[in-house]
Specification:
144 residues, globular, 3-stranded mixed sheet, disordered N terminus, 3 strands, alpha+beta
Length: 144
């Protein structure tokens, strides 16, 4: 994601933003549309949330494929757990998620930390893998 086509898709803050308190209900709506048989295709939730189509979608899918399958599955495992949580009465209760990226030269790892509270939050830290741009997608969309 560190190469030139990264300017055509969501940045680091955008990826976290879709799972924020303000946007989690919309993210859950998209999640329910793509989640089938306990799984979904890595990258599809962000693509749906940001309405990626055409070249943007092709660039996004190309870049998320830079993550090995086992890394994709580990990130998805945490997202699925957060998005499928239920209250004791059975109502949806998705957990907020924030993402952070460390340097691509760091040892490769995916870590997830649960921060209890109101609201509870997961922080997923991705180390040693390509990272999205730091600038907001809205600032770059349609400019290139």
């Amino acid at each position: 994601m560190g190469h030139d086509i990264a300017k055509h898709h969501p940045g680091q803050g955008d990826i976290s933003n879709q799972f924020s308190q303000l946007n989690i209900k919309e993210a859950l709506r998209h999640f329910k549309q793509i989640f089938r048989n306990g799984d979904y295709t890595f990258g599809d939730l962000t693509a749906a949330y940001y309405g990626l189509t055409g070249a943007e979608l092709r660039h996004w899918k190309s870049d998320v494929d830079l993550y090995p399958k086992d890394v994709q599955n580990e990130i998805k495992r945490h997202v699925i757990h957060a998005m499928t949580r239920k209250k004791s009465n059975g109502d949806d209760d998705p957990t907020l998620i924030s993402f952070a990226w460390k340097d691509e030269t760091d040892p490769k790892s995916i870590t997830c930390t649960y921060l209890p509270g109101s609201p509870a939050t997961y922080t997923i830290v991705i180390s040693g893998f390509p990272r999205p741009m730091t600038s907001a997608f809205a600032d770059r969309r349609g400019k290139y």
